Amino acid sequence: MRRRWIGSVLVLLAVLWGCGGSDGEIRHDRPADDAAAYPTAYIAAVVAAVDGDDLAVDGGEHVVVASNFDQRTDMGGWALEDADGTRLPLGIGRQLDPGGELRIHTGCGTETDDAVFACLDTEVLDDGGDTVRLLDAAGAEVDAFRYGE
Predict the structure, then answer these.
(1) What are phi and psi of 4, to 5 degrees?
(2) Is the N end or the C end of the chain the one with fewer CB atoms within 10 Å?
(3) Alpha carbon distance 95, 110 (integer Å)
(4) Model confidence band, residue 5 (pLDDT cutoffs 50, 70, 90)
(5) How far apart are the first and last CA of the chain?
């Protein structure tokens, strides 16, 4: 009986302290009115946390890059970089269509036309806030998106 009581208390404390996964999605979207200011590509959203594991296979935390290009563009060499200097490449030979979007995930997964997976073993996007920069193939900053506190 005493073990069951102690186990129940530990579970309650884990829930109260937020252990065992995310309490829901933490998504930060760029206001739609701001998107027109970017002639090439821009960071449309940052999903810093998801329901469950932030490094879930084929899901998890990610950044959405959107296109204002007027033609299909090779994003090879482009990258995202957070305030700590961690880089997430957009993928070699990755193409971004006009008006299209590309999701760059920090965890592992199966790549598709609109999803790239960096396959890192640690979370990159700080749930409480961070700055993510979009860098072109020459390393020049194209966009910087600050979210959270």
Answers:
(1) -65, -40
(2) N
(3) 16
(4) very low
(5) 45
